Each structure stands twice: as structure tokens, then as C-alpha cells.
Amino acid sequence: MEKKKVLVADPISEKGIAELIATPELDVVVKLGISPEELLATASQYHGIVVRSETKIRAEVIEKATTLKVVGRAGVGVDNIDIAAANRCGVIVMNTPGGNTISTAEHTFSLLCSLARQIPQAHASIVAGKWERKKFQGVELYGKTLAIIGMGRIGSEVAKRAMGFGMKVVAYDPYLAPNRASVLRVELAETVDVAIKNADFITVHMPLTKETKYILNKERIASCKKGVRIVNCARGGLVEEAALLEGLQNGQVAGAALDVFEVEPPTSDNPLLALPNVVFTPHLGASTTEAQENVGIEIAYQVRDALVNGIVTNAVNMPSVDKATLDAIGPYLKFAESLGRLVAQLAPKQPEVLRVNYHGKLADMDTTLISRAVLKGYLDHAHSDGSVNWINAPSLAESLGLRLTEGRQAATTEFAELMEVTAGTDDVRASVAGTFFGSSPRIVWINGRRTEAYPEGHLLLIKNNDAPGIIGAIGTILGRNKLNIANMSLSRDVEHKVAYAVLNLDSSPSAEVIAELENYPDILTARELNV
């Protein structure tokens, strides 16, 4: 039997490489730092490629690698792999989203302790031949309040360590359900502002998205308790550096610890570097022997299992299904992700249940993977760093206290088939529904209102008083701002004298355009939804 050839292109754990080499069915080639030219020239030889972040697996490599089955990334991000090309060529892309959780949580807490006791500054003073005991008086962690913004894997581990030090933990995460917060023994805040209001320390653990950029901005930092201390071990850009600088200089912020920066590495003219009350590390969150060992061994197991046993885990770009099943449900998967992503933007914060109801002929199908696609799309909205995939979505949902349920109704509605997705609590919820018109998917209900929108591009959802001239006003404002309308759907609530419009736009409306729409007298709300 011909062996399957695996290229290890970047440094991973020696144990991971040993696991691959010890597999009789594999022929392992280790070429660390392989040049782009050599990779392209030899790509057709490989059934599997293992990388970290250095080697780029571009479209031309994937297209040339006609025998390639799997690319394994030892780490979370897959920015160095062309996912679209992998999809086109049927190549599985895997990552290791959980391998650095403990390392990052421990580094966060190490920075927190260093910040509280000014350990790096005291060390530098001793090395400089000084003995400045009074200068470096610190504060205890015991009894202090820690606000954790983002309660995924890392945030949850930080919470455990904080409670071990006797700290009170207040957490904000729009996807953390109250029952899960109770299990974690943290106080759940409904908003970021509530979470940070009385905090002595703040740490952020969220992906960097349009919604989370500068989640700690000038206004929020100013609203904190005077003397707050801030830690960022997640993503540069979550904390607005200019606002942090101002807070550190005027005493609003007693100190900060940064492992990540808006620009990496930070330039020498970054004024934060000159401040004595800031602790810095060069993006070391995952830089431990154990983390590197973990991701190296994990990706070796995953690549081996995929090539030898046909078992796919932590796949970023495709479900683990046989071809017959995939052919039957394939058209629904992308649409299901879109519906999940859409309801995530409409749902109330901290929902407890995500429910998928199937009507008509869909009710008779095996919808396990379709529901999984809905869940992935839903979680993608909060975890846009690529860490959510078909395999880990259920465990991530469980860690947030989010339950995924299914319902079936064989009797048809006005459609031959209908997928309805609802998210929220018993009291407040949001819903969207979709069907296919021939081979073309359509969104046909949004929060109980009939519509007909394409699940693509930029959706603009407008609620307005049911009065003449609104559509003209919307068109005028969008036209003046060079925004082209691809499709528009209208509905009205006669009883409450309001109307709704859903528009597909060719490009994203700016915050200024949204504000201009909402300032029009009869327009009540306007918001962009990304699908």
C-alpha cells in the first residue's frame, strides 16, 4: 500500500513529529522554513501539510497540490491558508483552537499580579543598584473586583484563578447565559459599562471585530473607578491606546499590562513605552513549552487521523460527513450559517436557547449538520477569529450555557420547506426564517415580519412610522451617500402604524449614514446586518 506523504513545513513539537513518523501509513518529510518556490514546485507530492504561521499555503499551492487532502495549522488563526481555495479543491483545513488556553490564562494572571505589585519595575530598580521599597508599594488582589470582558475558554480560566486569590469576578459576555454564569460562580453583567463600573482590575478576552474594537474606549475608561488597572492579553485594538495613555497620565488608570498592541511590534515613538506604570510583554500569551507541545501534538494526531482513519476533527471549512449525506444537505449548509449569523445580531444579549424549527420536507431529513451549521454561524458572529468550526461549535456553546434544540413540523406552511431559527430567553427572543425559491435561498421572515431578502452582502433593516414619503427618503439618503440598493422588501404593521423595510445593499453603510437615516423624522431605527 502506497504511503501518504506529509510535509512538516514549520517548527512544531518534536513529539508531534515523532507521532507522525511512527505511523506506518505515512511518509513524513520535515522541511522547516521551506521556500515558497520549493513548496510550489513540490506541492503535488503531498497528501498533508502541517504549518504554523510562517509558511503560507496560498491558492496556487493548493491548486497545484492535486493529491492534497488536509492542511493542519498548529494554532488557532488560519490567515496564512487560503480557505476559499481549499474549499474549491476539497482540502480539509484544521486548526487547534484549545491548545493555548491555559498558557494565555496564566500569562494574563501573571500580568495582573505583576501589575498589582509592580514586579518588573522593582526588578529593574534592583538591577540598577537601587533599593526603593517605598516607591513600589503595591495593592492586594484579595477582596478586589475583577471585570472580565469575554468569558470564552480563556476568560473562564482567568476567572478560576482570580477566585483562587479571593477576588470577586464580574463578567460580561453577550453569549454567556445566566445559568452558565452561575456554574462558573461569576456575577453576570448585562453590559460592558455595568461590568467595569466598580472594577479594580479589568481584563479583556474577546476577538477583535467591528463590534469589539475599542471596547475599552475613552468614555468607558473615564467611567471606571479612579485607579483602575487594565490588562490586555487578547487582541490589540480592544483597548484604545490613546485613551489608555490619557488615563494613565491623569491618574484615572493606575496601571496597565499589555501583551498585545494596535501595531506590533510597537514603534519606539509609542508614548506608552515611556510610562513607568505599564508592564509590557511581546505577545507571549501562547508562548509556553506546554502550549507549543500541545498544539504540535494535537495537529499531528488530527492530520494522522484524517489521512489514515478518515476521522476529521477541528475542521475549519467542512463538516465530517460522507459524500451521499453531503450531496443531500449541501445546499442548506451555507444558508443555515447565514441564518445563524443573522439571528445572532438580532437576538437579546446572553441568550439561553438557540432553536431550529424545520417545516415541510426538511422535517423528514437528517438535519444534524444543518443545525450544526446554524450554530456555527451564530457563534461566528462573536468569534470571528476562525476558532469556531463544525466540530467545536457544540462544546463552545455548552461552555457559554447556550442550548441548541430542534423542532419538526411535517405539515407545510405556505412554503414547501422552511428553516426557522430563534434565539433568546423565555421572555425575549429574535427569529429569522428562510426557504429556497428553486435553487436560490431567501430570507422570508425576520422577527415575525414577512420579507424577501437575499442572504448575501449587506442587509439594512429599517423600522419606521407608516407614513408617506419614507421610501423616497431612504432612497435619497442612500443615493446621496453612493450606496446602491440591490433589493428591497417592505412590510407593515397596520395595528401599530409602523412599517419595515429590508434592503440588500452593494456596500456597507457607514455609521454616519445610519445616523442620518435615524435622524429622519419618521424613521425609528436603522441597522446593518451582516450575513
Give a quick rundown of the structure:
This protein is 34% helix and 24% strand. It is α/β, with parallel strands linked by helices and 531 residues long.
Describe the protein in words:
The protein starts with a strand and ends with a strand. The model has no long low-confidence stretch (mean pLDDT 90). The chain has 531 residues and is of the alpha/beta class. The strands form four sheets. A seven-stranded parallel sheet has the order 8-7-6-9-10-11-12. The chain is built from 17 helices and 22 strands. Helix 1 runs parallel beside helix 12 (289-309), helix 13 runs parallel beside helix 14 and helix 14 packs across helix 15 (393-399). The protein is 34% helix and 24% strand. The protein has helices at residues 14-21, 36-42, 59-64, 83-89, 101-117, 119-127, 153-164, 178-184, 192-196, 218-223, 241-250, 289-309, 323-346, 368-380, 393-399, 470-480, 511-519, and strands at residues 4-8, 26-30, 48-51, 70-73, 92-94, 145-149, 168-172, 187-188, 201-204, 228-232, 253-258, 278-280, 353-360, 403-409, 417-424, 429-437, 440-446, 449-453, 458-465, 485-493, 498-505, 523-530. It has three domains: 4-99 and 291-317, 3-Layer(aba) Sandwich (Rossmann fold), CATH 3.40.50.720; 101-280, Rossmann fold (3-Layer(aba) Sandwich); 336-530, D-3-phosphoglycerate dehydrogenase, domain 3 (60s Ribosomal Protein L30, Chain: A). The longest helix is centred in the middle third of the chain and has 24 residues, at 323-346. It is globular.
Topology:
Layout: E1 4-8, H1 14-21, E2 26-30, H2 36-42, E3 48-51, H3 59-64, E4 70-73, H4 83-89, E5 92-94, H5 101-117, H6 119-127, E6 145-149, H7 153-164, E7 168-172, H8 178-184, E8 187-188, H9 192-196, E9 201-204, H10 218-223, E10 228-232, H11 241-250, E11 253-258, E12 278-280, H12 289-309, H13 323-346, E13 353-360, H14 368-380, H15 393-399, E14 403-409, E15 417-424, E16 429-437, E17 440-446, E18 449-453, E19 458-465, H16 470-480, E20 485-493, E21 498-505, H17 511-519, E22 523-530
Parallel strand pairs: 1-2, 1-3, 3-4, 4-5, 6-7, 6-9, 7-8, 9-10, 10-11, 11-12, 13-14
Antiparallel strand pairs: 13-15, 15-16, 16-17, 17-18, 19-21, 19-22, 20-21
Helix pairs in contact: 1-12, 5-7, 13-14, 14-15
